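Supplementary Note 3. Input sequence used for the single-chain structure prediction.
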Amino acid sequence: MCLASCGSSPDVAGDGGKGGKGKGKGKNAGGAGPVPVEIADAVLKSVPVDITVVGNVEAYSVVTVRAQTGGMLNEVRFAEGDYVKKGDLLFVIDPKPLEGQMNSARANIQKSTALLKQAQAQLARDTASANYTRDQAERYQKGVAEGVFAKEQGEQLKSAAAAQMQVLEADRASISSAEAQISADQSAINNLNIQLGYTTVKATQDGRTGNILQKAGNIVTANTTDLATIYQVEPIYVSFAVPEARLADIKRYSEASKLVVTARAQDGSGSIETGELTFIDNTVDTSTGTIKLKGTFPNKQHRLWPGQFVNVGLRLTTRNNAVVVPNQAVQTGQDGTYVYVVGEDRAVSVRAVKTGPRIDQDMVIDEGLKGGETVVTEGQLRLQPGSKVQVRGQQTGEGRPRSSP
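The predicted structure, written as C-alpha cells, is reproduced below.
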C-alpha cells in the first residue's frame, strides 16, 4: 500500500496489524523524535443506514375545477392561493336562463297532469257507456233467441258494444301517453335541477388553489372551460429515485416495517419533515438505472410545496454497536483503505480496514478495527509502520496516548 504523499509504502497488515514489525519500522524508530499527531478512539455507536438523494415534492392529488353548465360567471368567492375545504363555494354562474327553463318545464308538467286527468275522466265516462251498451246487447241477443226481437237489431247492438270497447282502448292509450309525458316533463325538471346545482361550483377536495383562470363576467362553456386548479397538499408526496442496486435492500427492509423518509429544503433551511415510504415503482428506468419511490408526508404545517426540490433521506435500518472513527482517520492506498493504529508503546501500525457508510463527519468500519482502539486522525503524512507518536499538547512519557476530545 502506498501513501499518496510519500515514496515509501507501509506494509499493510491484513491480520490485525502484526505486519508493522521488522522492515516496517520507520526512521524515527532509530532515534528520531516522536511524530506529533492527533488521535481518536474507535467508538461503538448505533448508526442509521440511510440513502440520501434529491427528490421532488408532488401534490397528493390535483383537481381541475371545470364548469359543468354554461353561462355568465357572476361571482368568484375566493382569492388566488387560498386554502379551501371540500364543499366550499368557489364560483357562481348566472342561474337565470336555467330558472326560466325550469318555470317552462313546471308549466309543461302541469299541462300534462291536466291532460292525464282529462283522459282518466273520459275513460270513466266511456267505460260506463260501454257497460250499458254491452248489457243491452246481451239482452237483445236473448230476445232474438226467443224470437222477441229481430235479428238485425241484435246485431246492431252487438256491433255498438264492440265499438265502445275500442273507444275504451283509445282512452287507455291516451292515459298512457299522458303519463309518459308527465315522466318526460319530470325528467326535464330533474335535469334542470342538476344544471341549476352546477351554477354553484364547490371545491371537491381540501387543498390550495392556484390561479383563477376565469374572472367574473366571462362566459363559460359546460365541460370545456377550466376555472381553477386545487392542489391537495395535506398529505403530500415526495418522489425520488434511487439506484437499482439498492432495490433489494429497500424491498427487504420495507417488508419488515414501514421505512422512514425525511425531507428538507436543498439550502438546508427549515425543519426536517418526516414521512414514510408508501410507493415503489413496478419497473426500473433502464435509461438511468434507477427506480422511482414515493414518501407520504402529513405536511400539517404546509412546509413542503408542490414542485419543490428537497434533500431526501430514506432510512433502511439502524446498525447497533457499529465501529465508528472520524473520516480523516481513514487513508487510501494501492491495496485499499487503512488506518494507523496507536499501540500501548506509542508506536503505530498500519491496519487494513473495510469501510461502511459515511455518517456526517464519521466513517463506519465494517472490518479490521475494534471499539476502543486508538487511531491517528491527523499527521499521517509523516508516519510509517513502527513510528513513535506524540499527541499534540501532551507531554512525552505520559504512557499510552490519550484520545483527543
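The longest strand covers residues 43-66. The chain has four domains: 18-46+322-391, 51-59+233-319, 68-94+199-224, 96-198.
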